[in-house]
């Protein structure tokens, strides 16, 4: 199996699951850093208030613009990190896409032509779905999960229409607002497909949420679809929200790379709780089809009966209620 032969080339992986991140080797830098405007923004323009998390290639801070007092998220990259220019390019391309986090400003490096030093991003007050689950201390019900799935799919539909693949969809990269709005974030592992059949490197992103064809393209891809891997990742996320823990391994098991590869490529699909609806079970099964060519598309999933509730606003309100509850628990 090709993936086994390549195993020795991969770095040692340790807990937590969010840190099972595999990256591309350094890529050639663009001739100039992208910019959203002619602004001379500098890191000193922003006051860092607290650490929100660690994304692909950088650390994300809750910050405040010193002059305007605007709250925002500030993602600061390591010097020369290739993912900085890639993420800035994707966010500018997706500036009008629904359910994608907004880019306010690209903060250039001191050296001309280098990758951006930081990105000033929209602040989502509810934090990530990973943080929401942790603060709640219990699984989510189907109604708020449907709100997450619908909005994430609308975001993916817009991104895929722009030929953008995310390649690292997971609970910590789905952000939620106080009103229950969900947005996709962290495009450091993303890629703009220049051609329809552009290859997507298998070992980029977080291993725990990778699809089978990204572990072993020869065995699982069939008719190649570079967007199908994002659907698999969303299916894992949706099932995790329902179970309250990472679903592809027994709860509490300390995963390593081999355990994840075996579970994803060879393991049986995990069972949703006994109380789960038939619509939910089928939705997850359509996402977690191991053969990429059999997996449901984003368009098909948006028409799935699990998302057919006429009161989409009510489902989003149910998610907003969970955000408010989690905030109270955290006080």
UniProtKB/TrEMBL annotation:
Any one Gene Ontology molecular-function term assigned to this protein's record: ATP binding
InterPro entries cross-referenced by the UniProt entry: Kinase-like_dom_sf, Prot_kinase_dom, Protein_kinase_ATP_BS, Ser/Thr_kinase_AS, Ser_Thr_kinase
Record's keyword terms, sorted: ATP-binding, Kinase, Nucleotide-binding, Serine/threonine-protein kinase, Transferase
Domain of life: Eukaryota
SUPFAM superfamilies for the chain: Protein kinase-like (PK-like)
Annotated residues for binding of ATP: 75
Family, per entry: Belongs to the protein kinase superfamily.
Protein name, UniProt field: Putative MAP kinase family protein
Organism, scientific name: Zea mays (Maize)
